[in-house]
Design brief:
Helices cover 71% and strands 3% of the residues. It is built from 18 helices and three strands. A three-stranded antiparallel β-sheet has the order 1-2-3. A hairpin with a 5-residue loop joins β2 and β3. α1 packs antiparallel against α2, α14 packs antiparallel against α15 and α15 packs antiparallel against α16. The protein is elongated, with a radius of gyration of 33 Å.
Length: 421
């Protein structure tokens, strides 16, 4: 049997929920094995009878609990291996809460589908327990193949990888082949229907199909396309083709206008291509968009990137003030000071210039411990903005700066004078 062990689209963030689910499944199996060893077979049989999905003895909770029970260590290991390989990347893109809901929902739906087929098929054994996470894992495989349609899966023992879409087609056809074989076998044996096969093939098939339907409804193909376009754009940028990269980012932006990464990357691409006007246009949109989304970190990063490409470029006063304030919040007073000073230099008559001049003094006094320069800055502020609403505050800061400057001077004189000749 071919066993997958990785894909070429591993999770970008360390999975948390998938390892927990795997641990819970192994823990349940371990408890069952311990009960078998300590108390004999009766207790595990009762355990499985109470928590597995039995068509003629359904309980409210069993459509969930059955997915955490497995008939053997091999059955459990296979399911958990598939859960790790395919579930980890899906947890990464969906988030933990949504992924958990997806996993439990898939387990419930595929389990109930198997129960329904047992009732529909004449002669099927309705007392046989249905158990295992195979249905839920099959749904994950279906979603993965649609979401990461260009991904390839590596298998133990195979020197080559298999496309995820091809894997989905193979296992789907395989499950249908098993069902057909069960039908032929039962007919040849004189049975009237598929009957009580040990494997829940209907849950597997239903899981694959449900996963693909869910992925289509939630437009995972489009999300995957954006991701692949971004990967191709980064590759082309690294290969020195910024205009080709810009076209791919433009395609992403047409589908997802709120994607500020695409907006900024277009600015970077045009900048590397030598078109300063287009570059600044997209950079400014990106920085503004990041602030609107509350993402100050990326706004500052893109401003720095823009400044490296276009050293003389200046944003609008309000946006530049937001960048400077974000720098100060992020613990970079030197960069904040430089940016505030750019505001006072380029927009001397703007409202933001008044605030920037005041913040410059405060940073020098409070963050950089330079009371002399701070005092000079507060003096200039009071001269430039005599009617400012913040005049009282500036005067207070000026007095504090002068006082701290006088305190520092005597200490500098102690032992700091010239040595006698």
């Amino acid at each position: 049997m071919l066993l997958p062990y990785t894909s070429d689209r591993p999770p970008r963030n360390t999975p948390v929920l998938v390892p927990i689910l795997i641990l819970v499944n192994f823990l349940v199996f371990g408890i069952t094995a311990m009960m078998l060893w300590l108390r004999g077979p009766d207790t595990p049989v009762l355990w499985y009878a109470s928590f597995s999905l039995i068509p003629n003895s359904l309980r409210l909770y069993t459509p969930i609990t059955y997915a955490f029970l497995h008939e053997s260590a091999f059955h459990l290991s296979i399911n958990m291996l598939f859960l790790y390989v395919f579930g980890s990347s899906l947890e990464d893109v969906f988030g933990r809460a949504r992924f958990l809901g997806l996993y439990i929902g898939a387990a419930v739906l595929t389990g109930l589908l198997q129960v329904g087929m047992v009732y529909m098929i004449p002669g099927a054994d309705r007392s046989m327990p249905i158990l295992g996470a195979s249905g839920a894992v099959s749904a994950l495989v279906g979603i993965f193949a649609v979401r990461f349609y260009r991904s390839r899966i590596r298998f133990i023992g195979l020197p080559f990888s298999i496309p995820a879409v091809a894997l989905l087609a193979i296992v789907l056809m395989g499950e249908m082949g098993f069902l057909l074989w069960e039908l032929v076998r039962r007919v040849l044996a004189g049975g009237s229907a598929i009957g009580a096969q040990s494997t829940a093939h209907w849950a597997h098939i239903g899981g694959f199909i449900l996963g693909m339907i869910f992925a289509q409804i939630t437009r995972q193909v489009h999300a995957g396309r954006r991701e692949y376009l971004a990967a191709d754009a980064h590759k082309e940028m690294a290969q020195g083709s910024p205009l080709s990269a810009a076209r791919r980012w433009q395609a992403i932006l047409r589908e997802h206008p709120e994607n500020m990464e695409a907006e900024a990357e277009i600015g970077k691409a045009w900048g590397l291509a030598g078109d300063k006007e287009q570059s600044l246009l997209h950079y400014k949109k990106a920085i503004q968009g990041y602030f609107q989304q509350g993402n100050k970190r990326d706004a500052v990063l893109r401003y720095r990137e823009m400044s490296d490409l276009h050293q003389e470029a200046v944003l609008d006063a309000p946006l530049l003030f937001a960048v400077a304030s974000a720098m100060e919040e992020q613990g970079d007073p030197v960069s904040a000071l430089t940016t505030f000073e750019r505001i006072t230099a380029h927009y001397p008559g703007a409202r933001e210039a008044e605030m920037a001049a005041l913040r410059t003094g405060v940073i020098r006094l409070k963050r950089l411990n330079d009371p002399d320069q701070a005092a000079r800055q507060f003096e200039r502020f009071l001269e430039q903005f005599p009617q400012s609403d913040f005049r009282t505050y500036a005067e207070t800061m000026l007095q504090e700066a002068r006082g701290r400057s006088q305190d520092i001077a005597p200490r500098n004189d102690i032992g700091g004078g010239r040595r006698p000749d």
